[in-house]
Amino acid sequence: MKTKYIFRGLITVLLLAIAISSCESYNEGLLDGIGNTREFSPIGLKATIRNQTTVELNWTAKTDENADHYVVEFSADDPEFKTIYKTVNVTAAQLPVQVALEGETTYSIRVKAVNAAGLEDSKWSVVTATTLSEQLFLASVDGDIEAKQVTLRWPANSNVTQIVVNPGAITHTITPAEKASGIAIVTGLTGETSYTAELLNGTKKRGSKAFTTAIDIGTGILVKNTDDLMQKIVDAASGAVLVLEPGDYTADNQVGAITLNKTLTIRGLRSYNTPKLHVNFVLTSGPAANLTLIDLDLKGDKGAAAAAVSLIKYNDNTVNYGALLISGCNIHDYGVSLISANLSAARITSAIIDNSIVTNVLTSGGDFIDLRGSHLGQLTLKNSTFNNCSTARAFIRMDAGLTGLTTNILIDACTISNPNMVGNATFSFLYTRFVTNVITIKNSLFANTPAPYTRETVTANPTFSNNNYFNSPNLNGNPIPLANNRPDTTGSALNPQFTNAAAGDFTVGNQTLKDNKIGDPRWIK
C-alpha cells in the first residue's frame, strides 16, 4: 500500500512540475515570484498597421513601474525569432510608437521591459502583424500622365529594379540613373486607357499606382478658347467628341444654355488644367442620346437674364434618354439643381457623377438631384465631394410617377458636407417616393449635415456599410425623433479633422477614417 501511495505522490509532483514549466512562454505572467526579481512584462500589447507598411505598437505601461525603456525586436516571416530584422528601444513616453517595415510580410514582434535599478529584464510579450502592399510611388505632378506615356516617381535611390504596367504587361527595366533620380518614363501606352503600374524590386512589389492616360485626340474635334463654342456644338455630329483647350470661355458665343438632342462628349484636353465653362445643358427629345462631361470646370453664373439654372435639365416628357456621365469635373455656383427632370413620364438610363467636386448648388426652387415622376434607372455618386449642395431642400428627390420600374441609388466613397440642410422632416437627405427603390450608401463621410436620412414611408431601408457621420446626428440616430427616419446606426461619428473645410479642403486628419478608407479618396493622404 505504501509503495502505491509513494508512486502516486511522485506522479503528482511530476505533473505539477510539468504544469509550472509549461507556463513559461513569451506571454508569461507579470510577476516572476514573490521576490519580484525581474521587471513586469508589457501587457495589452497591440499592433496596428498604418499606411500599408508602418506598424503602430502600444501596450500598457504602469506609472508605478521602474522600466527604464523597452526593447522591441522584429522578425520577418520567422515566428521563432531566429533572425532579428530590426531592433528599436522605446520609452513609455513614446507610446504609441510607429515603425516603418517592408510590405507584404508577416512580422513576429516581441517586447520586453528593461529595468535601470538592477532587476532582470522582463520576459517577452509577443504579437504578430502582417503589412500590406508597400507604396513607394509618389503623387503625379501636372503633365506626368500623357496619352501615350507616363512619368512615374518614387523616393530617390530606393531599391527597385523594374516597372510593369498592365494591361499589356509593359515592362520597363529601371536604369541606375532612373533609380538614383526616382523618376522613369514608361512609353507604349494607349490614350484614354486605365492602367495599373507596379514598382518591383526583383519579384517583391514596392508600389502600385492606377492611372488613366490622357486623351489622344485622334478623330476628336479640338476647340480653342477663341472659337465659337455654341456653333461647334451645333455642327458636331451625334457621337462626336469635342476636346477643349484650357482657358476661360466667356465670350457671348461660349456661354449660356446648350440645347442637345444628340449624343455628345465634351471634355478638357488636360485634366490638370481644365477649361472654364459658364454653361448649362437642356436635353430634349432624341434617340436615347448620351451626354458625357469630362475634365471641365463648370460654373452656373450665365443663365438667361441672370436667372438661376440647373447644370442638367431634362426638358421633354415621354422621352427615353440615354446615359449621363460627369467625371473629373469641378462644378460650382448653380442656383437650382445639379440634375433636374420635372417630368411625369421621361425615362433616363443612368446618371453617374465620379471623381468630381460639386460646390454651392443652392436649390432655389428645386432639390439637388430633382426628379419628379421621371424614372432614373441608376444614380451613382462615387469618389466625389459635395459641399453645400442643398439649401433647406432635399439632396436626392425622386417622386412617384412611372410604375413597374425600379430606381437604384448608390453612394460610394463620397465626402458630403451640407450645413444648410434642415434638421427636421420637411426635407430629408433621401426624399425618395418612387415606388420601387434600392439604396446603398457605403464608405462615405458625412459632416455638418443636420437633415434626417429619410421621411417617406415608401423609401426602402438603405443598405449601409462603413460610413461616418460627424455632427450629423439625424443621419446616424433619430434624437428628435422624426417620423420615417431610417438612420445608419452602424456608422461611426468621428471628427474627421478636416484641414480647412471652410475653404473646401476636406483632407482627413483622423487616422481611423484614413485606415478605413471612408470618404472621397482625394482627401485621404
Automatic annotation (TrEMBL):
- Describe the location of the Fibronectin type-III domain by residue ranges: 41-135
Question: What Gene3D superfamilies does the annotation carry?
Answer: Immunoglobulins
Q: Which InterPro entries match?
A: DUF4957, DUF5123, FN3_dom, FN3_sf, Ig-like_fold, Pectin_lyase_fold/virulence
State which residue ranges cross the membrane.
none
> Which Pfam families does this UniProt record tie to the protein?
DUF4957 (PF16318), DUF5123 (PF17161), fn3 (PF00041)
Q: Which PROSITE patterns match?
A: FN3, PROKAR_LIPOPROTEIN
Q: Which organism is it from?
A: Flavobacterium artemisiae
Record protein name field: DUF4957 domain-containing protein
